[in-house]
Amino acid sequence: MYKRLELHNHTTESDSNLTVQELIHLMQADHVDAFALTDHNTISGHIKAQALLKEQNIAMSCIYGMEYTTYYGHILCLNLKEYVPWENINRHKPERLFLATKAKGAIAGIAHPFSCGYPIATCGFEMTFTDYSCIDFIEVFNNPEPLYEVNERGLLWWEDLVLGGYPIAASSGMDLHGHNSMHHQFATFIEGIPEGNIEEELATAFQSKRTWISKGPILEAHINESTKALTFSIVATNKPGYQEQPHTPYVLSLRTQKGTLSFNFNDKAPLTISLQDLDSIIIPKLYQGSTDIMNLVAIAPVIYL
């Protein structure tokens, strides 16, 4: 099964107007499978969330984390149970903090890499890496941010890194600071099982780079070694708020090092493509109507042939 995750959320423990209880209720109302608690530079909300989920017998899982908010960019950490000091953050050696959090079992990524902040703030990522292997993920969609100025740039940066040989997962987030609707917005999906351990499933998903980003449908890909073919299909998730455009075909986009190929899903039947026509690294994306980013619906895990 696919589990829908909301991986970037804040409470009154930092700068949101949502209490921990209100965040839990908001996630319940939108039928989220698991949500992350990622307040700025504090894990003080963790114990409150743990108590509330237990007291109210809520089956929904919480992913405990934190957003390191520095002058040089924001680092989003998931499965972070212990506060890791960051006072000696080095703009030119960000690997130190990434590796320090990962040593504690956390998953570390870059939040909204091209954000400008509001009204004036340093939210974009200005640190320089010499070792990209310490990055588990890049938040390619921070839903409140401008589409072209921020999110498209983040998506293209992630794609360029992947095609450059750096296996990095993609994520998305609402970056909630209030009672905002999650309808028509991107969410992160991973594979899991009913009542499975969400921390383990999350770690497996990011380690294997198998994360799906979607407003609703999941784009699945299956390799048939015997026929040397790659088959794509569209699977519904029933994410609240997703509205398919009637009579508008889905478009499959496959970006590779050699260029981009596009195919129509006219009737949503499985689409099969010969592996001979493809490159060794493939980034599959699903659009509806045209391949303008405004029409982007879903991103599938990168395929390595």
CATH architecture of the largest domain: Alpha-Beta Barrel
In total, the number of domains comes to 2
CATH classification class of the largest domain: Alpha Beta
Order of helices and strands: EHEHEEHEEHEEHEEEEEEEEE
Distance between the termini: 24 Å
By CATH, the topology of the largest domain is: TIM Barrel
Shape: globular
The helicity comes to 10-25%
Q: Report on the biggest sheet.
A: 14 strands, mixed
**C-alpha Rg (nearest Å):** 19 Å
Number of helices: 5
Describe this structure in words.
By secondary structure, the chain is of the alpha+beta class. It has two domains: 2-214, Alpha-Beta Barrel (TIM Barrel); 218-304, Immunoglobulins (Immunoglobulin-like, Sandwich), CATH 2.60.40. It has five helices and 17 strands. The protein has helices spanning 20-29, 45-55, 95-102, 147-163, 198-208, and strands at 2-6, 34-37, 61-70, 73-78, 107-110, 137-142, 169-173, 187-191, 212-214, 218-224, 229-235, 250-256, 259-265, 271-274, 281-288, 296-299, 303-304. The two termini are 24 Å apart.
Walk me through the topology.
Layout: E1 2-6, H1 20-29, E2 34-37, H2 45-55, E3 61-70, E4 73-78, H3 95-102, E5 107-110, E6 137-142, H4 147-163, E7 169-173, E8 187-191, H5 198-208, E9 212-214, E10 218-224, E11 229-235, E12 250-256, E13 259-265, E14 271-274, E15 281-288, E16 296-299, E17 303-304
Parallel strand pairs: 1-2, 2-3, 5-6, 6-7
Antiparallel strand pairs: 1-8, 3-4, 4-5, 8-9, 9-16, 10-11, 11-14, 12-13, 12-15, 15-16, 15-17
Task: Label this structure with key terms.
3-stranded antiparallel beta sheet; 14-stranded mixed beta sheet; 17 strands; 19% helix; alpha+beta; single chain; TIM Barrel; 5 helices; 305 residues; Immunoglobulin-like
